[in-house]
Sequence to fold (353 residues):
Amino acid sequence: MTIGYIRPMATMRELTFVEAGKVEFREARVPTLEGPGEALVRPLAVSRCDLDFVFTQGKAPVTGPFPLGHECIAEVLEVGDSVRSVVPGQRVIVPFQISCGTCDACTKGFTGSCRTVPKLSAYGLGPLGGGTAFGGAISDVLRVPYADAMLVCLPDGVSPIVAAALGDNAVDGFRTVAAALARNPGASVLVGGGGAPSVGLYAVAAARALGASNVVYVDPNDGRAAVAEKLGAKAVREKCTPALRLGRFPITVDATAREEGLRFLLGSTEPEGTCTSVGIYFADVALPLFEMYTRGVTFVTGRVHARREIPAALALAARGLLDLAPVATTIAAWDAAPEAWILPAPKLVLHRT
Fold:
């Protein structure tokens, strides 16, 4: 099943990370269906992941070139004969991780650790995403190898620009508080922001949507703090350091990606509370393990299992309860990608006009 698009074997433009501070459109081969369970999709809106900006700053252990983009809303172009969940013309959320849906990891909900594909397989993350086999989302066509397992239909009325981050960062923020608030309804939440700027803000949005009684956001950046306030948090415009004292919270979120920030969040977690870290630490850091032990702190780290989390977050967004719009602070045209991609912003979204 197919609708008109770039003919197979043609080339297309694909945004490519070249080196720190330099990204550019390069020619790439248009993918084609390679099996009956696959789909081809055309990205319509792509948001920049927090890690993408780390790449552009040269702060991640990666080298180019590799294609960019992995948070996207796309239109289905073509599906294989065995695909049943989507049809050409539908708009879908594309999870950034590749998952088959049937291996032992996927059936347990660990869709970011699918055993059918190479470790870390993902779109647009180069050596941190299992290589370049699946391309990047800032392109004309993406191949989805497990369409029924991966793709999630976007409801009418939900903006692709707002929803693009549901492929990664928005659900990453969502999962930092969802399980903890389910165990402890109405609990207060402390979020330390900055290093993973949009994930921290999405955690604020999720906490408010899920009924947290109080949300405090700590970040010296006035622009991000203002977004947090718009989402309903109390913003503390200070740097997260162990010297800062705000009391203790049953749920804390480390999005600082700094060791002193992590120590602040751990120290601000109340006895038997939960601290989830979404900061990526490329070097080992010291943890106050004895203090955590004596207070019974649960520490959670690791990559989000995006496909598992999308339905719950999307349902809240479709009902207007999970407010994703304020986080998308910068909207740029598709053709402006090379220039826009390297500029700082809590959340950049590229869209086709």
Summary: Residues 169-183 form the longest helix (15 residues). The chain has a mean pLDDT of 96. DSSP finds eleven helices and 16 strands in the chain.
